Inverse folding.
């Protein structure tokens, strides 16, 4: 689950990470009020208006703008709110901006030039350790840095049992070329950031840029936070931050009814019980020359109601040219699933315009096949994997 920048920053701040302060606004009037309030607490009269969407690269797309007075701020906020913001990370049509973060300007002039760094915290699955990736080349496209100058990206592995050691935080500050107060601030920043990563059960933090201000403060100017969904039950307050308007509507609906559904780009819908069989089924579809339109695990209790719900979800995708149902009847009996398919088909009536290939194996598979074949519906049954693949191929051609 992804957080918006303003939510991520609030969460980081609650763990003691220094952030660029800001207030979220839904209208230009709210934006002006937010700016006035910020001026009272921070003393700065310049502000940045930052579009809040679940995608990066907002600056490049015109979603981050500096306002030097309240008139400018109102005009900018008005223009950004409601716009379809297109960035390198959004879908081609962009994403609608419903909220803006009004933030204090932190690039003010002073004793030294502000410097932008890159920092992320994530899990290294290969070593089973957390890692902090960081670079002096912040503020820009880190993929480009990794491509052109990989030696400028550092990596610090942290043993989850030991936690981040003070010497590691110092090493990071040193490698970033810091000294004096900025060095101390960076060690504090890194320690708090790691604490927040573990404490929020996050799977990714990406802070780009981490800023050294002209007066040697170290703060998070941006925050991309991804939380581990499996840890959310421990963080009701974070779970409440979910923004459903940013998520795929079919996936949202599937989650509400307890189905494990992931939307994909292909043309063959699949309904499978068990994640392993679902993966194998997607391979099967590929081999047959198709592309899976989704991953859908209906789970162990594939009764008529669940099968019908699953059908409805798959049919919401206009690209679906055929549906492959591949169910292994271990706990659930195949004849019950078959009856569920037939009932669901009849209930959905005209909604189903595409051929359906059903492979049921396991308990009572023979009775299930009789039920499907005798139903008189446009449902093809298959016994073997290859047979199912062949029928999928015929269906999509
Ligand atoms: P992203 O483009 O989606 O990654 O959004 P960021 O939050 O990283 O902001 C993009 C850029 O806006 C930053 O790299 C900065 O150059 C600029 N920016 C952010 N905050 C301020 C600020 O307070 N003052 C000024 N002048 N520029 C800022
Ligand atoms: Mn950024």
């Amino acid at each position: 689950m992804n957080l918006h920048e303003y939510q991520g920053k609030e969460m980081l701040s609650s763990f003691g990470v220094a952030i660029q302060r800001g207030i979220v606004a839904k209208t230009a009037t709210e934006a002006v009020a937010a700016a006035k309030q910020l001026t009272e607490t921070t003393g700065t009269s310049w502000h940045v208006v930052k579009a809040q969407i679940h995608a990066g690269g907002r600056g490049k797309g015109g979603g981050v703008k500096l306002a030097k007075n309240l008139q400018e701020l109102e005009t900018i906020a008005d223009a950004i709110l409601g716009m379809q913001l297109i960035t390198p990370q959004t879908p081609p049509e962009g994403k609608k901006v419903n909220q803006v973060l009004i933030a204090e300007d932190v690039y003010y002039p002073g004793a030294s030039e502000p410097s932008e760094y890159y920092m992320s915290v994530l899990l290294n699955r290969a070593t089973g350790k957390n890692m902090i990736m960081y670079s002096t080349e912040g503020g820009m496209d880190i993929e480009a840095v990794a491509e052109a100058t990989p030696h400028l990206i550092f990596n610090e592995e942290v043993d989850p049992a030991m936690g981040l050691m003070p010497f590691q935080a110092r090493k990071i500050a040193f490698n970033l070329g810091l000294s004096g107060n900025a060095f101390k601030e960076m060690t504090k920043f890194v320690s708090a950031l790691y604490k927040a990563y573990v404490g929020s059960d996050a799977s990714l933090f990406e802070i780009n840029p981490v800023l050294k201000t002209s007066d040697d403060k170290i703060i998070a100017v941006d925050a991309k936070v991804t939380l581990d969904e499996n840890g959310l039950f421990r963080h009701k307050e974070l779970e409440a931050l979910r923004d459903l308007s940013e998520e795929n509507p079919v996936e949202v609906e599937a989650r509400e009814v307890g189905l494990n559904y992931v939307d994909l780009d292909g043309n063959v819908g699949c309904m499978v019980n068990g994640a392993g069989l679902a993966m194998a089924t997607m391979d099967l579809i590929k081999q047959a020359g198709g592309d899976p339109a989704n991953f859908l695990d209906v789970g162990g209790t594939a009764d008529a109601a669940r099968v019908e719900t699953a059908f409805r979800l798959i049919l919401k995708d206009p690209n679906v040219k055929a549906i492959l149902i591949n169910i292994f009847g271990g706990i659930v009996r195949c004849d019950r699933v078959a009856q569920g398919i037939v009932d669901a088909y009849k209930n959905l009536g005209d909604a189903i315009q595409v051929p359906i290939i059903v492979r049921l194996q396991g308990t009572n598979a023979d009775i299930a096949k009789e039920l499907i074949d005798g139903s008189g519906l446009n449902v093809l049954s298959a016994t073997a994997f290859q047979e199912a693949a062949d029928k999928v191929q015929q269906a999509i051609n």
In short: The chain has a mean pLDDT of 93. The two ends are 38 Å apart (CA to CA). The pocket of manganese (II) ion (ligand 2) is lined by residues 56, 208, 222 (CB under 6 Å).
